[in-house]
Design goal:
alpha+beta, Aldehyde Oxidoreductase, domain 4, 4 domains, 7-stranded mixed sheet, 5-stranded mixed sheet, 20 helices, about 30% helix
Length: about 800
């Protein structure tokens, strides 16, 4: 059916990476380049009384020192809530909060300069847990309102239930652990910034930099070289703005590269959560109510916490059919690192609560947990109560296939101390995300004209009407940005090769290869005929970035738009030569030929040359763009936030040692409905990588804190799963064609992370009868649960 789509294809960036010739930000060296390091707060919560940089300036080789007071738009510069400064000036809110930067001739000298900065602090009470953050004596920020996603009547649904399950689940804070740490090389020539950085969202960074330095966006250029899988950690990227501020101050290129401990200490993290859930169910397995109240440790700044809460509310409401759903979310400020997305964007955490509960509900009504899921699973052409319009959906097929494959060849353990069993969990994600970012914060850093006027009464964005501040006429009428667009520029050269500029960065997952494959299929050429130029904000295109499993779907549709325009132009040229109608021409293997007369054929290269060589030449440069038909959620949180939704089911076989509590995952089956698979080899690799990340998050990873200080800020003490513990993995794709996707494709990069905690917890209970409700699932937690279970049994016997 296809020449390129669906065929295993080598990553176009692969050779450079395996040979070491790929250029990452840390590899870039510019003439006259300087280096900078930041001063990190040693306290979790303190007022800054004074900052003295005089001794730092005396260190030989130190060129300059910069603080927040040196930056024009320093305050309210960063984050979806606009509550973070580039460099904090008044109060530090977590250990690692950045206060100043020293610019020097090399990194060692910059570090010496940092050590000489003297800061006088007034220490404040530290709130390092959700519980302490709920009632602070000295508030970190004003408490924010709860967020709700509601449909139906939960209390009514609980009354109608034959059984009600109430439980609590918790998940820890997690470090993203990117293979390359945060890095930036910035230069400023007195008028224009050029910034090389490993960001996920270059166009957001351009907007924020323009706001911070009070310059037009046309004076900011962001270029993204090779990127080392930030897994969501660079959606709001503080180091970019600090590096740019350093270059702005000294008018020379400045490089900043975090070391690994700084990456742990200074950067945003995956939040910790506490989920209080209630589920109502009938004896026949019909869900009558789903209720969840979530507490989120958003850290010292709001970061992405509200957006994560909204996302979790939608996920909670859209995996199973239920008429009565309520999800409430409370972000809690603490003196921990601030929140940002991480691969799956809150999905793994809420899925752990949902899928653990589904197995418990199945036990309550004596139903097979697979049967319970199949009974309640959403289906194709179904609109969820929260507003998701699901079109392609292979969820039930994924559940059945995963269940079948995991039971195949299963054999019980011969060791009396080792119990083997099986667990399953399923999930849903999105492809793109029209969340409706606050447009006022986006443009000004403030959510209301009153707040902006209080700080900046002379702001050009506001006007006074009857003495009351309002947004100026024509500024913008809506609080939500209704956009999830990507675009591209496709140029056909005169010998038939193609240059493709894309707007969204490749983070290592193979975006550029998929984009080239889509264009190659439409134009009838080889992937090797296409040169992909990565994200560069001076390219004349725009994209919202690489996150939320959106690039294959959204950017892929943009490439389709441009490629079909190019094909139409080339068909118009070829039709004159071949004497055939344009719509009757085919493009394959570098040729253009008639569908009905194989003698009418010519090389695509010849058609392209004619486009350049004749007086009436067609300009073979084409812009493509796509904005999905998704809907910004309304005030009740309802709306179809994406145009397509991938589904999955994952099953695990585990061995549990009853004497030690050690859990070994022996096998994993991961079945996915991600629409048509464009590059099978790449897709399998994506699932394997995400799955291992999910296993690691489920069983070993957790940032350990004491009074706000991380005590395991390195890979010696922060336990990422090692390759010797990776189980056997079987990947299967249920290719339910997505009507709106490029060649029927949906997103794939995040879903495989999602179900591991729930599947493993379910398998453990099936093995030894204990339910683990707190992540990570460590041997000590499992053994403790086994010991408590045995103690309860002994107490029951004694009572008899």
């Amino acid at each position: 059916m296809f020449d390129v789509i669906g065929k295993p294809t080598q990553l176009i960036t692969g050779k450079d990476k395996v040979t070491g010739s790929a250029v990452f930000v840390r590899d870039i060296v510019l003439p006259h380049m300087l280096y900078a390091r930041t001063l990190l707060s040693p306290y979790a919560h303190a007022r800054i009384i004074s900052i003295d940089t005089s001794e730092a300036m005396k260190v030989p080789g130190v060129i300059d020192v910069i603080t927040g007071k040196d930056i024009p738009g320093n305050e309210r510069a960063i984050g979806s809530g606009g509550d973070m400064a580039v460099l904090t000036t008044d109060r530090v809110r977590y250990i690692g909060d950045e206060i100043a930067a020293v610019i020097a001739v090399d990194e060692k000298t910059a570090e010496e300069g940092v050590a000489k900065i003297k800061v006088e602090y007034e220490q404040l009470p530290v709130y390092s847990t959700i519980e302490s953050g709920l009632n602070p004596e000295v508030p970190i920020h004003p408490q924010l309102d709860d967020l709700y996603v509601v449909t139906g009547d939960v209390e009514k649904g609980l009354k109608e239930a034959d059984y009600v399950l109430e439980d609590t689940y918790t998940t820890p804070t997690i470090e993203h652990c990117p293979s390359d740490t945060d890095s930036v090389v910035a230069s400023f020539d007195g008028s224009t910034f050029t910034v090389y950085t490993n960001t996920q969202v270059p166009y957001w960074d351009r907007m924020m930099m323009a706001r911070i330095f009070h310059i037009p966006q046309s004076k900011v250029r962001i270029i993204v070289p090779c990127n080392g899988s930030p897994a969501g950690g660079r959606n709001v990227y503080r180091l970019v703005y600090i590096g740019a501020a350093c270059a702005w101050k000294v008018r020379r290129p400045v490089k900043m590269v975090r070391n690994r401990e700084e990456q742990f200490a200074a950067t945003a993290i995956r939040d910790s959560y506490k989920f209080n859930v209630r589920f109502g169910i009938k004896k026949d397995g019909t869900l009558t109510a789903m209720d969840c109240y979530t507490y989120c440790d958003s850290g010292g700044y709001i970061g992405w916490a509200y957006a994560l809460g909204q996302a979790q509310g939608h996920l909670f409401s859209s995996l199973y059919k239920c008429p009565n759903i309520k999800y409430a979310f409370r972000p809690v400020f603490t003196n921990n690192n601030w929140s940002t997305p991480m691969r799956s964007f809150g999905n793994e955490e809420i899925n752990f609560a949902i899928e653990s509960s589904m197995d418990q509900l199945a036990k309550m009504i004596h139903m097979d947990p697979v049967e319970l899921r199949l009974k309640n699973a959403v289906e194709a052409n179904y609109k969820t109560p929260i507003g998701w319009q699901i079109q392609g959906c292979g969820l039930k097929e994924c559940i059945e296939k995963a269940n079948e494959l995991i039971h195949k060849d299963f054999e019980p353990s011969d060791d009396p101390n080792i119990v083997k069993s099986i667990g399953l969990a399923c999930g849903v994600h999105w492809t793109g995300w029209r969340v409706g970012f606050n447009s006022f914060i986006w443009r000004t850093g403030y959510g209301s004209p009153e707040a902006l006027y209080a700080d900046k009464p002379d702001s050009p964005y506001i006007t006074l009407v009857d003495g009351k501040p309002q947004w100026r006429k024509g500024f913008w009428d809506e609080a939500a940005i209704d956009n999830d667009r990507s675009s591209c520029l496709l140029i056909v050269n005169e010998e038939g090769s193609v240059v493709l500029h894309v707007s969204d960065p490749d983070l290592g997952q193979g975006t550029y290869t998929v984009m080239a494959m889509i264009a190659a299929e439409i134009l009838g050429i080889q992937v090797s005929d296409i040169k992909v130029i990565g994200a560069d904000t001076d390219s004349g295109i725009f994209g919202f970035g690489t996150y939320s499993s959106r690039t294959t779907f959204v950017a892929g549709r943009a490439v389709m738009d441009a490629a079909y325009k190019a094909r139409a132009a080339l068909a118009g040229i070829a039709s004159e030569v071949l004497g055939e109608k344009p719509e009757n021409l085919c493009f394959r293997k570098g040729n253009v030929f008639s569908k009905t007369d194989p003698e009418k054929t010519m090389k695509l290269a010849d058609a392209a040359f004619r486009g350049y060589a004749t007086r009436d030449a067609v300009l073979l440069t084409f812009k493509g763009q796509y904005d999905p038909g998704s809907i910004v959620p309304d005030k009740e949180g309802k709306g179809s936030i994406a145009e397509a939704y991938p589904f999955l089911a994952q099953a695990v076989e585990v061995e549990v040692d009853k004497e030690t509590g050690e859990v070994r995952v022996v096998r994993v089956v991961s079945c996915h409905d991600s629409g048509r698979i464009i590059n099978p080899s790449q897709a399998v690799g994506q699932v394997q990588g995400a799955l291992v990340m999910g296993l690691s998050l489920a069983t070993s990873e957790s940032l350990i804190r004491k009074d706000g200080r991380c005590i395991n800020p390195n890979f010696t003490n922060y336990h990422v799963m090692s390759m010797d513990k990776v189980p056997g993995v079987t990947v299967r794709f249920v290719e339910q064609i997505e009507p709106n996707g490029p060649f029927g494709a949906k997103g794939l990069g995040e879903p495989a992370v999602v179900c591991m905690p729930g599947a493993i917890a379910n398998a453990i209970e099936n093995a030894v009868g204990v339910r683990i409700k707190d992540l990570p699932i460590t041997p000590s937690r499992v053994l403790g649960a086994i010991v408590r279970q045995q103690a309860d049994k002994n107490a029951e016997k004694e009572a008899l």
